[in-house]
Amino acid sequence: MKKITVGAVLLSMMFVGVKAQSLKSPDGKFEMNFQLKNGVPYYNLTYNGGVVVEDSKLGLRLFKDTAIKFASEIAKPEDAKFDLNNGFAKVDEKRDSKNETWQPVLGEKKNYINNYNELAVTLNQASTDRSIVVKFRLFNDGLGFRYEFPQQKNLNYFVIREEDSEIDFPTDMKAWWLVADYDSQEYQYQETKVSEIPAKWDQAFDANASQSLVKNAVQSPLMLKREGKEPLYINVAEAAVLDYPASHLEVDAQNFRFKTHLTADRQGAKGYIQTPSTTPWRTIIVAPKAEQVMDSKMIFNLNEPTKYTDTSYIHPTKYMGVWWEMIIGKSQWAYSTAENVHIDKTDFSKLTPNGKHAANNTKVKEYIDFAAENGFQGLLIEGWNIGWEDWFGHSKDFVFDFITPYPDFDIKMLNDYAHAKGIKLIMHHETSGSAANYERWSDKAFQLMNKYGYDAVKTGYVGDIIPRGEHHYSQWTINHYYRIAEKANEYKIMVNSHESVRPTGESRTYPNYISAEAARGTEYEAFGGNKPDHQTVLPFTRWMGGSMDYTPGIFQTKLDYYFPGDKRFVKTTLAKQLALYVTMYMPLQMAADLPENYKKHMDAFQFIKDVAADWDDTKILSAEPGDYVITARKAKGTENWFVGGITDENKREYTVDFSFLDKGKKYEATIYEDGKDADYIDNPQSYNIYKKEITSKSKINFKMVRSGGFAVSIKPVK
């Protein structure tokens, strides 16, 4: 435990204040101080006069040169002279400020406010005559900082051994965290004190298709809470991860300190830099209420505006998919019984069908019919293309060509059939981790999409990355994701990536990259399961930097319906599944269950049909990470509102105050709530639906059962 007191920290800050460069937020509540101690850069942060972050080191360690050898991550004492973390003198400082309003192409609100004060400190390292800039932006909701490397005689090319940005907290706090992994975020969230993370770390993960764990480190975004009479909520993340690896956080549990740990390549190198260049922003969002953290758009504000000249093709989409039946094991992606196929040699028409291939003409037409009858815009079809027989686990480079359909999938006929009914098919490009192969085929794949009128693609990266030795979050692969986004923009195509890196606000810059998975989604309900509190943590972590394709809407939650005796089940009530469409922002919004299950509950399915996918306004009515989330949203371009509430494994009551509605207007509210006898284990499909006239003065009390919820559709009375 730390021996130092908060009072001592404040005294220390006052003592060094004369030499420090100070920066205040526009509202004056935050103050950041930067200083050099014996040539080493430090910063700290206070909120309303109280310490949030103690003096924390900044800097980077570099390799000797750009000729990296295997196992060269092992540092030698003589290598220290190449580092950019000491021996600095301040040679310049510049200040700036901005207060602007900008409109996201797709977003949770019509307008995002970007208001900050900025301090850029130029540091020179006399021993090497190298200069860097440390830039800070202080918003009314927290701090962002990054390193900038101007082009100069002695710093043109370099390789990062590690970035050592620290965030040193004064007290032990509650934390919601995931184990760090270079290749996956698909783990269960843990809730412990920071001091307890190492003891829990070894039990905090299960197996994954691609896995490179970082011992005693956690992933970002990391959610923290200082408990007590004056609680404080803190979110630690990053923004604008471009041409740089994604970061993790090494944990010093005794001192409550976190340090940046970048994703490495197989040589141990973290980043290959050519100046001029910048790192991503390290972000610290701070608020006295959890709702304010969820409402922050600081991460998006730290990204650059888009350079796209045309964004008219980018639109919210509600879709269904030939997907869930493969996830649960009812059908298969593969067409045949073969175990060894070659994309350029095998004649798939001569293979023996396995009888379980889901992406066949008859079944796809049935999905199209149901989606069209119920007002959906898109239908995702997985397993349509050749190669699924041996797609996984073989480190196979040429695994798919992304253009050749199986014999029982008539791509022209199905597209014509879909378009005649107002449905656009959504392309599926699983790469099996072979990102290099996808880049080779991307032009032909997108040309095929243009030919048949597809305007959205779901990409997938299951398995180890090829080029071999790269990781899902290393610099090369990060660049790959955005090369694909830029290529897709050339063909006016929207991208939804799975098993990719978590977004860090880049949808501002690449608005056609409209969604991603990059976390443990609904599919895991059929694998290892998701805990009932899972969906109450995600909005504070994964969702902070961008939308997720969580794929909710499962009505038949017990899998023994398909396979008698099967113990797997989705750990929510049906009403909670409806609420997820509001508590989770998803501009690409899936109704994931099978049509046959929706047909049995068309009254509840009406909410999925009605709910919007993009918004003019969002209000976080009440929230507590790991416990509950209550959200209200106003549909884009309408006067319709939707409210969703979810809880964890505990029963809860919540009274919705509808004062966010326009005064003097009457509205019809359609309410979908847990039945009195509902329970996520014993009776998940029990729900109650009723209508009620409400105004801005109305209040309605909702009783949520274990892992339950409620959803409300609100329309003005004309």
From TrEMBL:
Residues 323-519 form the Glycosyl-hydrolase 97 catalytic domain. Residues 614-715 form the Glycosyl-hydrolase 97 C-terminal oligomerisation domain. Residues 1-20 form the signal peptide. Pfam families: GH97_C (PF14509), GH97_N (PF14508), Glyco_hydro_97 (PF10566). It comes from the Bacteria. The lineage of its organism: Bacteria, Pseudomonadati, Bacteroidota, Flavobacteriia, Flavobacteriales. Its cofactor is Ca(2+). InterPro entries: Aldolase_TIM (IPR013785), GH (IPR017853), GH-type_carb-bd (IPR014718), GH97_C (IPR029483), GH97_catalytic (IPR019563), GH97_N (IPR029486), Glycosyl_hydrolase_97 (IPR052720). Keywords: Calcium, Hydrolase, Signal. Monomer. This is Glycoside hydrolase family 97 protein. Residues 23-305 form the Glycosyl-hydrolase 97 N-terminal domain. GO terms for molecular function: hydrolase activity. Gene3D superfamilies: 2.70.98.10, Aldolase class I.
